Batch of 2 targets.
Target 1
Amino acid sequence: MLVSCAAYQNGKKLADIGESEIHDYVSRPDCFVWVALRDPDRAKLDEMQQAFDLHPLAVEDARHGHQRPKIEEYGDSVFAVLHIIELDPSGALKLGELDLFVGRNYVLSVRTAAERGFQDVRARSEREPELLKHGSSFVLYALMDAAVDRYFPVLQALEAELEGIEEHIFAGLSPRRNLRALYALKQKLVTMKHAIAPLLEAMGKLHGGRVPQVCYNLRDYFRDISDHLVRLNQTIDSIRDMVITAISVNLSMITLEESKTMKQLAAYAALVAVPTLIAGVYGMNFQHMPELEWMFGYPVVLSLMAGIDFYLYYRLKKAKWL
Amino acid sequence: MLVSCAAYQNGKKLADIGESEIHDYVSRPDCFVWVALRDPDRAKLDEMQQAFDLHPLAVEDARHGHQRPKIEEYGDSVFAVLHIIELDPSGALKLGELDLFVGRNYVLSVRTAAERGFQDVRARSEREPELLKHGSSFVLYALMDAAVDRYFPVLQALEAELEGIEEHIFAGLSPRRNLRALYALKQKLVTMKHAIAPLLEAMGKLHGGRVPQVCYNLRDYFRDISDHLVRLNQTIDSIRDMVITAISVNLSMITLEESKTMKQLAAYAALVAVPTLIAGVYGMNFQHMPELEWMFGYPVVLSLMAGIDFYLYYRLKKAKWL
Amino acid sequence: MLVSCAAYQNGKKLADIGESEIHDYVSRPDCFVWVALRDPDRAKLDEMQQAFDLHPLAVEDARHGHQRPKIEEYGDSVFAVLHIIELDPSGALKLGELDLFVGRNYVLSVRTAAERGFQDVRARSEREPELLKHGSSFVLYALMDAAVDRYFPVLQALEAELEGIEEHIFAGLSPRRNLRALYALKQKLVTMKHAIAPLLEAMGKLHGGRVPQVCYNLRDYFRDISDHLVRLNQTIDSIRDMVITAISVNLSMITLEESKTMKQLAAYAALVAVPTLIAGVYGMNFQHMPELEWMFGYPVVLSLMAGIDFYLYYRLKKAKWL
Amino acid sequence: MLVSCAAYQNGKKLADIGESEIHDYVSRPDCFVWVALRDPDRAKLDEMQQAFDLHPLAVEDARHGHQRPKIEEYGDSVFAVLHIIELDPSGALKLGELDLFVGRNYVLSVRTAAERGFQDVRARSEREPELLKHGSSFVLYALMDAAVDRYFPVLQALEAELEGIEEHIFAGLSPRRNLRALYALKQKLVTMKHAIAPLLEAMGKLHGGRVPQVCYNLRDYFRDISDHLVRLNQTIDSIRDMVITAISVNLSMITLEESKTMKQLAAYAALVAVPTLIAGVYGMNFQHMPELEWMFGYPVVLSLMAGIDFYLYYRLKKAKWL
Amino acid sequence: MLVSCAAYQNGKKLADIGESEIHDYVSRPDCFVWVALRDPDRAKLDEMQQAFDLHPLAVEDARHGHQRPKIEEYGDSVFAVLHIIELDPSGALKLGELDLFVGRNYVLSVRTAAERGFQDVRARSEREPELLKHGSSFVLYALMDAAVDRYFPVLQALEAELEGIEEHIFAGLSPRRNLRALYALKQKLVTMKHAIAPLLEAMGKLHGGRVPQVCYNLRDYFRDISDHLVRLNQTIDSIRDMVITAISVNLSMITLEESKTMKQLAAYAALVAVPTLIAGVYGMNFQHMPELEWMFGYPVVLSLMAGIDFYLYYRLKKAKWL
């Protein structure tokens, strides 16, 4: 589906153009065309491949989807794949993809399986003609920057999730649910890591070493994206590390709870077993057991039982077994 | 065993040829011979060594088998070893090998201990004369690409296996079988890793730095294989990481189950021990125990026992000990 | 908020100057201006950006805060971000930031969310004109050195914290609190690591390889800071390693305690169960039980019970079950 | 002890020579001397140092023994240290050493603390004059290749050992012995690793980068040894990884067994406690307990006890507690 | 405190000289002065700084102490910091420091907080004029070699300590003390690692790449020290790895012991509970219980109890629960 298609010159939008006009504008010097597609079908992609003369391997990657994030040069053009990660209301992660084909005078962005679009990036870019003058490479920067910035709130949600679980753990609550939540959190971190780590690695190509011609003037800006990715990557590693620690702390808490249960079990057993022993003694059938004939033998023994239990209860309470 | 043997020129098949004709075709410029062997014996390999003038160390590697995946240059020719991993119906992994000898005008592929062949690669290549024009290096690409693509369904099967185990773990089912399955899964991942990681490392030689002459034109294509290998490698690492976490989560679940059992044990013990104490009290032989003489002493005490047990049961149920 | 603003020449302070005079002094050769801000608002930063012609990306980083530590070159100037970590009286870590903009003839330091200032650095620098002669790069060195040196007492406090927890662990005390403390300690180490590791990595730019012009003469001094950072980094890793070990040792101690509790439970159960059995035996209603008719049957049996319990107690004590 | 000493020219053995003749043959061009020593004393080594003009640091290393594997150049000559690992019949590893001094026209091999010699290498080399023509470097290759190939059966034995332990673990057998065996296996892997990892690292010097003059023609052969070492190294890492997993799986199995024991304990306790309660009820001394006077009260109650126990047994069996 | 001070020329000692004479000898070509200090105060260090024109940053490092091991060049001179680790009789590690300032014609060694001196190095050096001819760099080598060689016995003591703990673990003895010992051992390994790893890293500067002029001739000797450090480093890593494994094995042993205790508990409980049930049955008050009236009912029932217990004991013994 075509989201929008416009031509730009000298930092300003010339016109919204139809697909048939793309060829005209692409051939003009100093002008570039910015096309945004969403979940395109095969025919649409083939059309674009012809319009912009895209490399077949890159188009095939976009068609198949499920690529790992990467930035590749094909001759003078750059092909970038980014993951889009969106948070479900249920807290699950939804994985989409953003494929960017960038040449000297065109930008083609293909968004797949993602709710939220990048129209705001186009709008902001059009409000900053000074920067948009840099041409298609600025659009590449602006789109990548927006896509990367959207990882932050997702990661913050995962951090908040971990904090919630931590509270449950140290309160000794619902260890079973904690385990499941920690395991799910670790899986989400894997998803985030798969989005960010390869992109970080690839990003170096756009600001260090031999930078593609088309991106050269904006090296400092691409370095800034790299910087955000490093921070995201480091945060993922830290959360991951704390999740592993939390799993082992949770096991310790479970063992502690078990230990406490065992003490309670022992304590209550004692409170019952001792009076049972006494009752057993006075249930013996000896002919000569003077207590049995006492007038107040029975209440005395009952009091003895209660007294011993009170004392035991006090001692066990003090020793924190109860 | 000879699977097939044909000569190609300018992207098109010239003819299926006999082994005796190999020498003729190999000496023609612009022509290359593609021979496919399956589980060959020593004599057949020696024959091929002579026909194509292969390096003795490479031939010896192919003869012995059980090599680690690698890509080596011997003069102008390239020798590549890939693992073939096939899934048994039982879920076990079967390890085969694909050895590729590639020179300017020949390709020799040797498949060992693998069910499924690569005839489909030959068929598809012959339908794409544009690409097959690149000569023997394209055949190298096509065979490696096919071999690498076959790792994906195997890895997906392992991912599905892990998901199955996860469900069992969190349902608290069959912890013993889960352990065995996780351990076996880890071993399979080791097998996959041994197939993929060394190949990924070796692959760099075909698209970065000093690329062998024979592969130079297809660098972008070999980079594409590298990309698939990176993705496979990353997925293996993630599954492996989750398997380790799952083992520790499984231990936590076992401990939790044990803890729950202990609470049930304690609860049921209490339900029996308290009435036993009461019965013990009224089994004492004191001469003066007024209750014993009451008309309804016995049913009152039985009701007392039942009442206490109902109350305990209610409390223990509420505290989730039962 | 402006903390101070002064101009220096040839290692000596010329004058405290007003913000309006900055432009005059910055344009003089051999003279540099040192401005210190604290928690500045947007307007103040914009003013400074104009006064010193700072790069917009750097100013934006300073405005947003929460950057990872880094050292970046923008043309001839250097932009450095450091974390400031301060210890709460409660033992919590408070995270602030120090942003340094350094050009040939100016230093702008921006401190955010940190209690303690760097006036002492200015005072000491003014007492060492020999070194201050090196110009703005020496101020950069002096401020970074001071900021890095302040990590040491924080790390020592964390080391002391770990030692306190270790004592509790091996004394078998408060395992629950130990767990929580170890977990919190690990989180603090993550905070420290995030402050130190990226800075260490960035620091290399100031003493190895292509050093920015402005810092060239002080390479040995920046190497010294690197050295301190390596030491801090190594110490963090060691503490982190010991924390993980301590968590697993703590689990072992909990399991040991549980094991000991189980032995005590068993021991006390035995002390009650055996006399209960004996009482049960003499509660049987056989017509022919000679002991029942003995004159001293009852006291003999009571003594027997006591005797057996004494013996059991002695044996269990010796076996360390009690 | 001198094992053998011979001179070679043009791939053929000239003669077995005495130690006094070494000097004559070493000075002839195109000829090289191959001396094999076993557990030599200090005097013998000094003699050889003089005969071949060896570097004092290398000789001292050979004298002291217990070096880590390495390959060092001293001027034109190469000094290599390899570990020899032999399997005791008891399964223990015996560590020996092979020191190789190689110059343009001599090879001195010193074997220490190892049972099996390298006479077979000499015999095979003499049967391959084509290769032996390469001179002393081929002998270096042949000896290193033989030494490295001997690691494979040792490692296979360790793999078999792990498999044996795995079977015990999953059968729930002898967890104590499994632990000891896994721990010992891990120690053996450390020994193997110390033999192989440093050698692998050093090996690069003989086939990549600046290769010593004496080894230049055989680069492809030394690369082959490297390849074997990479495979060995990878296998060690995998076994090590599985040993760690096996230890944690073993712990899970122990906890599972404990859990099962606890359930059995609870089940059997229930089978005894319930009839005991019933017996207690009918041991009460109420005057009005109609059942007591029934003719068949006693057998009815006994049957009740048995019936309840049968039912409990059936339920517990079904719930897999028994 | 001045330990000794002497001048050397051409590999021979010229004279023990006073501190005031240092200046004379340092200015002579072909002559070098070797000064050894122990725990010097500030004044003494300042004196030396003037005598040898040392770099202020290096002197400050020596004054402060607690540096991480390093080797730094200041112009033509080399500054090296090594840790000295000595074993307390109690098994604790004592950390000292050795600071070496080496220029073309002087060596200043500063030993801090270490018992054992390096006089033996001076004595041996004076007995080897051939090597001492290399000048101050040979003294640097000899001192570093001696300092590094002293790490070996310390590490062997730690290895012996681990072996002692292992024996305790597998004998099931004193798990609590084992934990404490393993934890302490891990801390000692951290101390060793901090001494060795940074030195190993720094050592490369003295034999690979751009070696300082003063050390150039002795590259092979410095490589030998590197080699020792690699071995030490590898051994530390292996011990550390085994300590972690030992902690987890110890936990498994504790859980095993607990499991065994639980079985014993269950077994003894059974031995008491079953006779108690029987006694309870014959304590019931039914009017019609034929056994009660039998002449030998009582002894028969006692025998029955004993018989059942013997049988149970035999079965439990066989099942290894007792």
Note: Chain B touches chain A through 43 residues (CB under 8 Å).
Target 2
Amino acid sequence: MKEVERVKNDLVIANRILAREEVADAYGHVSVRNPDNPRSFFISRSLAPELVTPDDIVELDLEGNPVGSDERPLYLERFIHGSIYEARPDVTAVVHAHAEDVLPFGIANGTPLRPVIHSGSFIGAHVPVWDIADHFGDTNLLVSNVEQARDLAKTLADHNVALMRGHGFAAASRSLIEVVRMSVYLPRNARALLGARLVGGDIKFLSEGEIEARNEKAYGPYSTATWRAWEYWANKCGCGRLVSRSQDKK
Amino acid sequence: MKEVERVKNDLVIANRILAREEVADAYGHVSVRNPDNPRSFFISRSLAPELVTPDDIVELDLEGNPVGSDERPLYLERFIHGSIYEARPDVTAVVHAHAEDVLPFGIANGTPLRPVIHSGSFIGAHVPVWDIADHFGDTNLLVSNVEQARDLAKTLADHNVALMRGHGFAAASRSLIEVVRMSVYLPRNARALLGARLVGGDIKFLSEGEIEARNEKAYGPYSTATWRAWEYWANKCGCGRLVSRSQDKK
Amino acid sequence: MKEVERVKNDLVIANRILAREEVADAYGHVSVRNPDNPRSFFISRSLAPELVTPDDIVELDLEGNPVGSDERPLYLERFIHGSIYEARPDVTAVVHAHAEDVLPFGIANGTPLRPVIHSGSFIGAHVPVWDIADHFGDTNLLVSNVEQARDLAKTLADHNVALMRGHGFAAASRSLIEVVRMSVYLPRNARALLGARLVGGDIKFLSEGEIEARNEKAYGPYSTATWRAWEYWANKCGCGRLVSRSQDKK
Amino acid sequence: MKEVERVKNDLVIANRILAREEVADAYGHVSVRNPDNPRSFFISRSLAPELVTPDDIVELDLEGNPVGSDERPLYLERFIHGSIYEARPDVTAVVHAHAEDVLPFGIANGTPLRPVIHSGSFIGAHVPVWDIADHFGDTNLLVSNVEQARDLAKTLADHNVALMRGHGFAAASRSLIEVVRMSVYLPRNARALLGARLVGGDIKFLSEGEIEARNEKAYGPYSTATWRAWEYWANKCGCGRLVSRSQDKK
């Protein structure tokens, strides 16, 4: 399989995983940068992630315009993806979704969303909250153009995740597998933190040193531990037969 | 397909979606106004929404009496639907249900149920709470006659949703697809708000301007974004093959 | 079908419903009084409710001994059932289970478990909490003999449900369908009350008059509304084909 | 079936149960001591528990090295198992997992995780919390070598469960069936305790006498009550046909 085909195949799996793990529902989307052209990316046409097949993948440029003649309806918020790829050359994959248990941390300010469990470390030591109202006033809360998307990317800065007030989150990573993993563990970390609030007393967050240590070791996209999760989630969402490991990566 | 047939077909899908999304269980019902006669509406006979098929749809007048000779048992609370259609010419579809996570806001008064997430905007800036005990004293809490239903419709007034104390909610919308979407996101908005209470600190609700902006744009029943959800939910509840788009609507 | 056969058939359905609705897991049991002999009752042999078939039903006397020569292992806590039938001639069916969301109210004393939603009315205005330690000291918490079971029945008195501290609940009703319905809505009422705690402020419980009004009307085991739930739950747990309505009851 | 084959067969079932009951996801593992050699144990190769089959079982020595020539990737944290078997001759089976509802108690210190429900008694009167940072500073939180694993085993001491701060738990028991049961009821006990926090007021934990009484009676791995759960969980996760009872144990 050619690399670009493998990437599209993995994007289908990623869509299905995010649906099955309840990160996305009718809404939410995941994209991957074109390995042959860093100025474009692949994403589904406007379709619920659970229903995405290879034929639904479209190629968009960083301003959100289709590359070629595809005229099918697109995600309204596709600008989020382009603007993050533009601002972050290190990023290869982006998720925007509304996973339910993440939402409270974009609404109330009593407890910051920070890593409390080891699998939540990937969100990084600081998760900024972007409020579209700060620069754009009363909107329908959707990131509907490049200007808004660039503002979000500016808040994301060099972090891995930004919460979007009253809306959801945007997550960025160096690989598709990693952005999926982060998107699955982000709500789990949120639930653990909500539970800790109920337990009461002092909350012990991961230290900055621990967060760094986790990024350094053992968790690349093709490591034994990461691959185990990808394979598991793909099977769980009915895509087990589609899983294939890139030939040139270990 | 004739419009009236399409409407009944969509009503079956709506029943199944509400069951699958856990808005309804054995109880709860959804109706749609007859497109050929604004003084009657379609609703299932007394049956759990998950089990509704086209043959179960009956036509009732606004006082809750069957149009024609159907003698099958009816929902006891069918009066809710008729009285809302009577009071609200702008309304085409009504849901009454007991979605679990909405219930606390009809029981305790510490936090009003207002939109905190963008998909919750459709419930509107204010969600009144109707307490049947206020005008009818000790009842079995069910809306069992036209008088009670009209009282509920009066509390609903020109809002989109009314909570019913210790019981559930009534939701009204200009289309079937929209009332289903609102009924699915109402409990999600409630959960996000409960989570925000646990996060602690100040809660940022959607502003009135944001709520208005969302109603103005992009979210009609046949818009790309809304249709995506309808198609997704229909597939999820096993009704994918029944989905058809009205010919005369975009 | 003879009445005794119909009762056993319904008992199988009841077992499956309680499993599917997560009232019971590996543990928990439901019984029904023998319609031909008020001094005995039917219950499954020791088996998880989800797996119960007609062949697993045994007949026990009110002291928990098998009627006839059945030697299969029995539920250790079968005494609960016999002692409630003994103390309460009005009772035809009993459930003992550990539905998870009911447990907190038997552990902490900050909020009494009382009806807050209309479908929770059946638990009655007062739900006593029985603590086995009060009269029996340090035990394994299981109701292992007639003496303990009679003590529980004494606390239950003429109520519909008793919580068992650190353990679960016992529910008693005049029909199998009703005890199943109550057991399904008991945890739902508990969840609504926990949610109301999180909403904060004052909690409005159902009034005594409302609880009475609900018992008087519309909710007998073969009423339209109750039958709708039984039919729905039976279908949901895969027992739709087993549902049959008693010929002599409406 | 030879005892060693039966043990491996049960280990496959145990993996599947832990996955189905959401104790494990892509991560988490269960092992059993080799009945023919107390210095080695069986565990899956690096694979999500839901996917484990008999061919995936490997044999490791107490330092985590494969016995024989197996070269397939192994669980990084396999050292946890070996070190517990080394320190605790009474232990036959070990689980390490990250069941979500247990996590809060390893993060916040406001409420100790102690038994509040009878099925939670098996975790014992005291559940120590091990923080890898105490002796090893900033790590990736994984137990990656024998030294760390022995430190964890030292904190576990003669208890049944140790929480691991920001990570999960390790559970040890005298049989595979018992360690699975404990791992399933550990999160349930945690949820009941979180619920009790929400109920408010005083929380009644199981007394030490009650915990002891439960260990003494009726709950060996082949007792009627325990076997009922094993059989139920095995059926639920699709392994009903694999269940077989050891010939020489009752």
Note: Strands of chain D lie at 29-33, 40-44, 57-61, 93-97, 129-130, 161-164, 168-173.
